[in-house]
Specification:
The chain is mostly helical. The chain is built from six helices and two strands, in the order E-E-H-H-H-H-H-H. The protein has two domains: 36 residues; 118 residues, Flagellar protein FliS (Four Helix Bundle (Hemerythrin (Met), subunit A)).
């Protein structure tokens, strides 16, 4: 991890990166040249995700949250099959976090009415189900939550395309 050192002079303050021995080892590609393409791909993917988030509409961001939670659950399922307890728990924790802070956190309970309250309750149920699935190594729990998320994602995705289809129909009638 890079550390930044702030130095002041009479002119402008400057920020200079300082590398620890661990950082130099991490940054050094000479020790394992085969790792460079993997690191480059990870960096590229991270930039792509950040760009996607910055350029997305609020509607698209919710779809990205659903996709992220589904991806974490799928990865957890793979770790469960391979009996990798630690990574399974990490993936389930990420899915719970996405559901709790991303999806549930985006609800406006005041303006959303009964549907927002019902979604909040459903997100709470999903998180409890994921927690139990993690503790009990229960694939059915993972599958159940993934199914619920896919259904909600599909409904959310159809909301965005409905106005576009209506506009196409109006344009077709007007032509």
């Amino acid at each position: 991890m890079r550390h930044m050192q702030l130095s002041f002079s009479r002119a402008e303050p400057t920020l200079k990166p300082t590398l620890t021995a661990a950082d130099k080892k991490e940054v050094s590609h000479e020790s394992d040249p085969a790792m460079f393409p993997q690191r480059a791909a990870q960096a590229y993917a991270q930039i792509g995700i950040e760009t996607g988030v910055a350029a997305s509409s609020p509607h698209r961001l919710i779809l990205m949250l659903y996709d992220g939670a589904l991806k974490c659950i799928a990865e957890a399922s793979g770790h469960l099959s391979a009996r990798r307890v630690g990574p399974k728990g990490e993936c389930i924790s990420k899915a719970i976090s996405i559901i709790e802070t991303g999806l549930k956190g985006s609800l406006d309970l005041d303006r959303g009415g009964a549907i927002a309250v019902q979604l909040s309750d459903l997100y709470d149920y999903m998180n409890r189900r994921l927690l139990l699935a993690s503790m009990r190594n229960d694939r059915q729990g993972l599958d159940e939550v993934a199914g619920l998320l896919r259904e909600l994602r599909g409904a959310w995705a159809s909301i965005d395309t409905a106005p576009a289809m209506a506009n196409e129909a109006i344009a077709a009638v007007a032509a």
